[in-house]
Amino acid sequence: MSSTLHRRWLLPAATAGVLGLVLAGCSAPGTPAESDADCAPYEQYGAFEGETVELYATIVDIEADQIVESWADFEACTGITIDYVGTQEAETQINVRAAAGDAPDLMIIPQPGLLQRLVADGYVVPGPAAVEENVDEFWSESWKGYGTIDGTFYAAPLMASVKGWVWYSPSDFSDNGYDVPETWDDLMTLTATMAGNSTDTYRPWCVGFGSGDATGWPGTDWIEDLVLRTAGADVYSQWATGDVKFSDPEIKNAFDMAGEILLNEDYVNGGFGGVNSIVSTTFNDAGLPILDGNCSLHHQASFYEAQWPEGTVVAPDGDIWAFITPKTDPDAGNSVTGGGEFVAAFAESEAITAVQTYLSSDTWANERVAIGGVISANKGLDPSLAGSALGQASIEILQGEDTVFAFDASDLMPAAVGTSSFWTGMVDWVTGTRSTDEVLTSIDSTFP
Length: 448
Fold this sequence. Notes:
This protein has helices spanning 61-70, 72-78, 90-99, 112-120, 129-138, 141-146, 170-176, 184-195, 217-231, 233-241, 249-262, 277-280, 283-286, 289-292, 350-359, 362-371, 389-399, 409-412, 415-431, 436-445, and strands at residues 5-7, 51-57, 80-86, 106-109, 148-149, 152-153, 156-162, 165-168, 298-300, 321-324, 335-345, 404-407. By secondary structure, the chain is α/β, with parallel strands linked by helices. The chain folds into two domains: 5-160 and 339-406, 3-Layer(aba) Sandwich (D-Maltodextrin-Binding Protein, domain 2); 165-324 and 413-445, 3-Layer(aba) Sandwich (D-Maltodextrin-Binding Protein, domain 2). A hairpin with a 2-residue loop joins strand 5 (148-149) and strand 6 (152-153). Helix 5 packs parallel to helix 15 (350-359), helix 9 (217-231) packs across helix 10 (233-241) and helix 19 (415-431) runs antiparallel to helix 20. It is globular and about 70 Å long. The N and C termini lie far apart (48 Å). 47% of the residues are buried.
């Protein structure tokens, strides 16, 4: 038995063959006794013979191979074949497929905003009771809320990322006697101290907003971190829905705070030039001057770990490590921004429910994270299974009882704002094309 992986990003017109995940001895669906898999964890899902469930997603390449690998034992033990279809066009094509009556059974949805639109159009069915029970047990209330619309639960969380990390060199800190800051004021004091060591090429911060058509999005992460830390989760949520305006004092304050670093020629942009180089510097390259000693700090999400050159040791005593953007109030709880995916159903059957339930379980979370490359906020996940020290630290943050997790606000906002005017507004702001007030008023005008 095997998982069928349609590589539509390579061969758009047809299926591209079967991924080589055939389990020895598994000759036919519904015969788990002949498989090498330990089927005890999967007995709760039932036995099926010849059932196929299509799962649609934007996940491609090696990550697609890994996710297919993660449910191989589930398939062997239940008899369900998960027909995985991965394409980078899934976010747009799902609307076409659903409107044509050709919706997949399940989809891994990368943004709550897209989930909301699909629910509003009547395409998504409510989540089964067993899935909701898993979410209540293994996920925080805030995570469940992103999959709940108008009081009805639709979709369980899947994987996650933690944003707001500040990357640095432990040896740089040790050699210069720097301490990891505990508050935003501490961070600003540290930045001013580092600026005293500036040279023609060195500045405390290295920053890059460049990302092709998506240039500007790294800047939105700065603002989101500061809105959450200064104004709190309620204001953050109201901002994402448009009830709090960009031009309101809480949001303008976040821009002003970020501007103390990003608009200061004495503080940026080590190894690249001044403030004007922020837009032309890609987010991929922006942190690398830390390794050359041309800057000391870089603000970017947990996924930036993959950008460090091969051989770079990412650890508390390694070449590179990171701390979370500090609190503004030392007595406040832990708040982090981040992203994640959600699994929603477009049809109902016992097999679909079984797959949905499994993907919302701690069993799947541990199996997938153990393969490597991802993390999850599932509370039943063993952090030690993460493939790196930073992954382990991110999981521990997500699992913290007092952690307030806020989904990336630009992903929650309407596309006309979150992936358009907010991005371009950050470019205009950091280049000085328009003033802060002009940028904020302009973004507000694009809200539907």
